[in-house]
Request: fold
Amino acid sequence: MLKLPLRLCLLLLILPVFHSAVAADFWRSEWMVPESAEGKKLIIRPIEASDADRFFHSYMTSQKWLYKRLGWAWPSEKSSLEQNETMVSYHLEQAEERTAFTYLVIDKEDKSIVGAVYMVPVAASREEKSGIPRNSYNAEISWWLLESAVNDNLHNDFFVLLTNWLEASWPWRQVLFPVSQSNDTALQLLESSNARSLGRDLDAEEKYFSYAISRK
Reply:
């Protein structure tokens, strides 16, 4: 008579753990949004409305370089301040509604904007086109850094700061990193990290990496 209740108790204990590890909510109302992360050379903080002009002039200094490497059809040489204002407003609305989060990467020395990080729900097309199960990932994360920042090797500091922040402050268990095959810097970082390669989408010319977040 004791065996059945014991099995049920074990099942009830196991199910919540299994659910939190596999059923991947992007955001829950009880979660707190991490404000920022600070390393030796960089700060990652939320984008603000007052950042709009500096944000635009930052990425436009590396427009051709970013356009070639990101595979986003952005930033275009025709990008304008007005388009940028609309984009920043959209990012702020997403953050307010907890549907996506956009952060800036700041150089601690001169306070300049040297990059950005985007945390969004996994796109439905990932599963439809590449067979990546959306339920296994809380979010997909992408980023860009200026050419000057990469030349200064800040990409290494950035990736250490980002992954440490994910482990220390974010509630997620597993995230997806989609990276353009043209983005050599990001590919090298992920291939030399604990991220697991999932393959590529030949049509989109992207590679995908799974990153399990261990709690600190």
Remarks:
- The helical segments are 3-22, 52-60, 63-70, 81-97, 124-130, 147-151, 154-169, 184-191.
- The radius of gyration is 19 Å.
